[in-house]
Amino acid sequence: MAGVCLTDMSLVIGRRLAHTAAIVHERPAIPGQAAIDYAAFFRAEFAAVTRTAYLVLHDRDAAEDIAQDAFTQLHLHWAKISTYERPDAWVRRVAIRLAVRTVRRHRLLDTLLGRLVPPREEQGGDLDLADALRRLPPQQRAAVALHYYEDRPLAEVAQILNCSHATAKVHVFKARRRLATLLGEPAEEGDHAP
Question: Which pTM value belongs to this model?
């Protein structure tokens, strides 16, 4: 983020503030002065929180997303958090927690795919499958790896991914559909969640 000029960061902060407000639009609005205080706090701290998240993630876009998620949580609880001695510490703690979770998920996925997909020299004709798997969202990649490569039942996949059984089924179903599309194979008639 060292190469980002102040004008660019101001534009990012403005877009993120507007996006955060849109996300929480169904919640009661922050009243008067509190809304002004929140906006000022957001403008003052967003760049620093993004920088902190970047140091954990080493990915600018992901760091901005994490910072935005942390500020969304802050917005939802602003009435309480604004009374804290250090609301900046609270929002950073949330951002760091979210960033660490993201890193752990990526490491787990890399570990799963590293163990389950043979090295490129041994893949032969499966290069297309490996490339298609990389194009799936992380949760879908993990669900496919656990269910098809490790032959784990969906209940266990759900437990490992920390989601409901139905969500695990949806991940596997959507992954199968996407893989069929990416590999140029027709989806099976009546293809439904396993």
Answer: 0.48
